[in-house]
Design brief:
Two copies of one chain form a homodimer.
Chain A: E1 5-13, H1 17-20, H2 23-36, E2 41-48, E3 54-60, E4 63-70, E5 75-83, H3 89-99, E6 104-112, E7 120-125
Antiparallel strand pairs in A: 1-5, 1-6, 2-3, 3-4, 4-5, 6-7
Helix pairs in contact in A: 2-3
Chain lengths: ~130, ~130
């Protein structure tokens, strides 16, 4: 497999409080986003925090998706990293943002596996 | 919990081929790096790929660590993302790089949970 990959780092703000605390919804959203993008899921872990918040990861054959949610701040940090060029991680990130009712998404793309690291295509979408 | 976090993105090159394929060594290295940094481990998943390579994630109370290894290229992509300011993700990334015998590490720091995304402190260490 080639080392080249694309890593989308997304900051989701003004999300729905209850959705950020809904482990089942988040797990289903991530699985759906991965499969919809054409990824092959290998491992899934999501962990609820007390008193609130969810963290988790989906390991795909093409790298990973992760989330850390902060319901009290309406915030979720989301990463979608895919290797190869058959999958579009931006679409998966946008699908996740919409499922969590994010009002604003800041995102950047970081090519991986090339050498020195550079940010590409910084984007702010508000409203989504 | 505050949203502020620090995400280290690290590209490890010229690593030891066999170590990049050693699931047990990688899992132990990641657990050790997380605990040594003062993180609290919540979930651990590592997945071997056929014919080679390992992907995995450690979910910590303070966010996550991930790896995707490409033994055939001597390359591993590593992320260490920690919330709060009690943990130094750079130390954990460097510990992982050394455990995999990386000769070169490109890394950047991305503050998370603030708003727009910016890269900080791009660094190339060679040799480590």
């Amino acid at each position: 497999m080639e080392t080249l990959g694309y890593h989308i780092i997304a900051e989701l703000w003004d999300c729905d409080h209850d959705k950020l605390n809904d482990l089942q919804l988040i797990e289903e959203t991530f699985a759906h986003a991965a499969l919809n993008a054409g990824a092959e899921i290998r491992e899934v872990i999501f962990h609820p925090f007390d008193p609130q918040g969810v963290s988790g990861a989906v390991i795909i054959a093409e790298s990973h998706l992760t989330i850390h949610s902060f319901p009290e701040h309406g915030y979720a940090s989301v990463d979608v990293y895919t290797c190869g060029d058959s999958i579009n991680p931006k679409d998966a990130a946008l699908m996740i943002a919409k499922a969590l009712d994010a009002k604003t998404m800041h995102s950047v793309e970081i090519p991986r596996g090339l050498g020195e690291l550079k940010m590409k295509n910084p984007t702010t979408k508000s409203p989504l």
